[in-house]
From TrEMBL:
Similarity field: Belongs to the UPF0125 (RnfH) family.
Region of interest (Disordered), residue spans: 1-20, 102-127
NCBIfam families: PRK01777.1
Residues of the signal peptide: none
Pfam family, one: Ub-RnfH
Lineage: Bacteria, Pseudomonadati, Pseudomonadota, Gammaproteobacteria, Chromatiales
Gene3D superfamilies documented for this protein: RnfH-like (3.10.20.280)
UniProt protein name: UPF0125 protein Thi970DRAFT_04295
């Protein structure tokens, strides 16, 4: 498991009167590797801006924001969503198969196997 942890600290070490910042994370996970990047940003930063500022698009060139969906802790969001302190922007890998179609295919396969093995099927009596 590979983890790329990078922290970008915007506004740290400044004067006490500096604008407050919020801490957010940007994460992208695949089976082979996970990338988690932490950054500080101004309140009101959007998910899209955080993704751009984090540098994850350079580290993981397979990410295509026109294809990959986004979320915060499992809840789907749009790139325009404003973030709060502690939010984790998740970039989801595209689905390989449509879950509804996969379930239908599995059900059809089970029905075909069940009917062939037991010889069972709807009973029809004499008409």
């Amino acid at each position: 498991m590979v983890s790329n942890n990078t922290t970008k600290d915007a506004g740290e070490g400044g004067s006490p009167n500096a604008d407050p910042t919020i801490g957010v994370e940007v994460v992208y996970a695949r089976q082979a590797a996970q990338t988690l990047l932490k950054l500080k940003a101004a309140p009101g930063v959007t998910a899209g801006e955080a993704i751009q500022r984090s540098g994850i698009l350079r580290l993981r060139p397979e990410i295509d924001l026109s294809v990959n969906k986004l979320g915060i802790f499992g809840k789907p969001i749009k790139a325009e969503q404003a973030l709060g302190d502690g939010d984790r922007v998740e970039i989801y890998a595209p689905l390989i198969a449509d879950p509804k179609q996969a379930k239908k295919k599995q059900a059809a396969n089970r029905a075909a196997k069940g009917g062939a093995e037991s010889g069972a099927g709807p009973e029809t009596g004499p008409a």
